[in-house]
């Protein structure tokens, strides 16, 4: 496992190690859950749910990073596109001006 994957897994474990399903249970329910193994299943479900939330945030962070990295190239392409469209527009305007200057043909 590379260092980045190890760091991400450590971060996930650190962020969600404080998840505690026992805090909202009565002592009797807590005892039943521990004896039957339901607490372990519940805590795993919470851990998995929180891990997916973290992965979604990481996905959005990656998308924002990609957009930030591509922004200069996108702007450069947009400038070139606007220049070509403006040149086409000016060429069309020259034809109109020449037709008006030549006057109507009868």
TrEMBL record:
Gene Ontology annotations of biological process type: signal transduction
Family: Belongs to the TCP11 family.
PANTHER family from the UniProt entry: LD23868P, TESTIS-SPECIFIC PROTEIN PBS13 T-COMPLEX 11
Name of the protein in question: Uncharacterized protein
Native source organism of the sequence: Opisthorchis viverrini (Southeast Asian liver fluke)
Lineage: Eukaryota, Metazoa, Spiralia, Lophotrochozoa, Platyhelminthes
